[in-house]
C-alpha cells in the first residue's frame, strides 16, 4: 500500500469513530502529540488557539460530545508529497445541547509525520458555531 492510501484510510477511520461519538477511540487513533486549531477569531478560544496535550484531549472531547456529525459526508484529498490530508465535509450538523441542526460545509487539514497525524486545522463557519453555542448573541 502507498502512503497516500494509508493516510486516506487512517483519516476515514478517525472520522468513522468520531461520527459515532466515540471519544476514547478517536483519541486513541489520533495519538499523543497532535495539536488542534479551528481557524477563527480569538473570541472562539480555546478552539481558535492551537491546543496540544491535555488541552487537545479536552478540545476533542468537547467537540465530539457537543457536535453530532453523524450525517456528514466526507471527500478526502491526499497530498502525499506534503504529508497532508484535506477533508471536505458537508451535511447536517447537530448541536447536541440545544438540539439545533443546520446544513454546513467545512474543511479539515491534517498534517502527518511518520504515518500519524501531528496537526489538525479546521476551517468552519465560525459565526454559525458562535451563534449556535451562544458564544455571541445575534442582535
Q: What class do helices, strands and sheet pairing give? A: alpha+beta
What is the CA-based Rg, rounded? Answer: 15 Å
The biggest beta sheet reads: 5 strands, mixed
Spatial separation of the terminal alpha carbons? 53 Å
Give the overall average pLDDT.
91
Percent of sequence in beta strands: 35-45%
Task: State the share of residues found in helices, binned by percent.
Answer: 25-40%
Please work out how many helical segments DSSP would assign: 4
Defining traits:
139 residues, 4 helices, alpha+beta, 5-stranded mixed β-sheet, 5 strands
Question: Any overview of this molecule?
Answer:
With 139 residues, this protein is α+β, with helices and mostly antiparallel strands. The chain has helices at residues 3-19, 23-30, 53-66, 126-132, and strands spanning 35-38, 67-79, 84-95, 100-113, 116-123. The chain has a 5-stranded mixed β-sheet with strand order 1-5-4-3-2, covered by helices on one side. A hairpin with a 4-residue loop joins strand 2 (67-79) and strand 3 (84-95). Helix 1 packs antiparallel against helix 2.
